[in-house]
Design brief:
Structural class: mainly alpha
Oligomer: single chain
Keywords: Membrane, Transmembrane, Transmembrane helix
Helix content: over 70%
Distance between the termini: 21 Å
């Protein structure tokens, strides 16, 4: 017998669902206010330390002179990079991004805890770097990133910048529920991707609008002060959580609806 989450997904597949832009956005903003400061600090410290480690490893492997020369803006333009270099950069980016997907999951879980006024700590951000979640998150993100990276390389050589933006936006849109489906819905990697594609396809315009507005909200952090983006960035994780909550819901909520 299917559990209640799977039943809800099956109903969405057959009947679709209703989603109100204003309700979702306001809900996400109220949730964001609870995690903005703590989430921003965690993101800032984590990526600051990660950048130092990554830069140190690169210098240790290639040397400081070669690293600084490669990082010059004129040397990083796609048109001056060889195909092999682009493939290596893309492969490294995919592996790093896939390895860090449990951190994203932790931030979404933080939004979940804030909604219920439950305590959350730094350990919450790293809760999914363990079995069985890490494997599912890593593989799902890896598969999506490989497809996106292949398309990006093709677009870079075609030199049509707008297509790169469309590619990024499309991938972000149709996989918006992938991570929540794994950590909350307990779905497997490929199943989570397929389910996210199916759900988003039912209401793509509203979800696209939420992503676009959410992205602009995050960019406010760059307008005021560059470091401010770390404190506006948690909004996107509140948005991911709320979208999942409004569309799928959680076991206790679904069970209560079933008894009415």
């Amino acid at each position: 017998m299917m559990n209640t989450t799977q039943n809800r997904i099956e109903r969405i597949k057959n009947n679709g669902y209703e989603l109100d832009f204003g309700i979702v956005f306001n809900h996400a903003f109220e949730n964001y206010k609870k995690i903005a400061l703590y989430g921003g600090l965690v993101i800032f410290v984590f990526f600051f330390l990660l950048s130092i480690v990554a830069f140190g490893v690169i210098i240790a492997i290639f040397g400081s002179a070669a690293t600084l020369e490669f990082l010059k803006p004129e040397n990083l333009r796609p048109e001056v990079l060889s195909l092999s270099t682009l493939i290596i950069i893309s492969a490294v980016s995919v592996l790093i991004g896939s390895s860090l997907s449990p951190f994203t999951a932790g931030l979404i879980k933080m939004a979940y805890c804030a909604e219920r006024d439950e305590e959350f700590h730094v350990s919450t951000m790293f809760e999914f770097f363990k079995a069985p979640y890490f494997k599912e998150l890593f593989i799902a993100t890896l598969l999506v990133s490989i497809v996106s990276s292949i398309l990006s390389v093709i677009i870079d050589f075609a030199q049509i910048p707008i297509l790169g933006f469309v590619n990024t936006l499309t991938v972000s849109l149709f996989t918006i529920l992938m991570i929540p489906l794994i950590i909350f819905g307990k779905l497997k990697d490929v199943e989570a991707i397929q389910t996210s594609l199916m759900i988003v396809s039912k209401q793509p315009l509203i979800l696209l609008g939420l992503i676009v507005v959410g992205t602009f909200a995050i960019m406010v952090g760059l307008i005021g002060c560059c470091i401010g983006i770390f404190f506006t960035f948690p909004f996107i994780y509140s948005l991911y959580y709320v979208i999942y909550s409004e569309i799928i819901g959680f076991e206790t909520e679904i069970d209560q609806e079933a008894t009415l």
